[in-house]
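Example 5.3 — La protein 1
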Amino acid sequence: MAIPSLDEEKAKNVLCQVEFYFSDSNLPRDKFLNKTLRKSDDGLVSLALICSFTRMRAHLGLGNLKPEEVPEETVLSVAEVLRGSSSLRVSEDGKRIGRSTELLKLEEVIEQVNARTIAASPMEHDIKLEDVESFFNNYGKVNSVRLPRHVADKKVFCGIALVEFSTEEDAEKVLKESLVFAGAQLELKPKKEFDSEREKMLKQHEDSQSLNEIGSQANGSYPKGLIVSFKLKSLSVAKSANQNLPHKSSDKEDAQKKEGENTAENANREDGANPSENVKNNEEPPPSVDTESGEKLNKNCTGEGGVTSEYNSNGGGQKATKTPSRRVERRPLKTP
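Solution (predicted structure tokens):
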């Protein structure tokens, strides 16, 4: 069966992309691909799976096809291109792919990669990997370019590009250069310095998040995303409901009230009056009347015809009772 060949531009992009997938720069950090390789007995994985990766689908124009939906002729065409790579190994049937050399220990690989990687900034927010790679290829062979995300927002580029060169010597040489990219003077530093600064920024972000959560709880606010339900009431209804509520006196008011009662009771006792004999409902006691001689007699004294007028404190009226008439003896007032 004749295998269709890829055009030159597409073949170049496919080769670079697959070599990057299995390189020391990517494989130690690619959890999915690393796990898939470890499960394989021969160290190879499905080439159709590799063709279904996002960037490979873009290079091959496959849309959103799943691994089992990738056409067999496309897989075989890619296999023919990959056979020319010194770092890749292709199965005889052209359907499986892997590394040509065994991967070293993870810690050793990461240490070697970091030693030949530099951090370059500032970069525009919409910068492309290809543009950064093309620029630094003028100063040494570039293995990979990474655009890390911001620590506070994983959807936003942090403005710093990580450029890995093929050798540590190339990376050290570029660090000594004074480079201008897209009209901006670049700040170049080793990858280790970038990692140290990023770790501090991440710690500060986590601390600020914790303080915000504590502040939200103290202010009685709700966390983001919480669904709450509430019921609206008109102002007139709320005001009417508040007026109908029983008045609750404070402890201070109760103490003042009790103190006032005790004071009144003590005053009555000092005057020789019995508090239980006080007139109810704040009614005044029967008024006194003056006699012709200037003596004062209460209203319950005898009137004409021997009828005693007795004041009724309950009804405010009078009740007439027959009493024997008695003579009122007049005595002169004593002067002091």
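Remark. Residues 5 and 77 are 5 Å apart (CA to CA).
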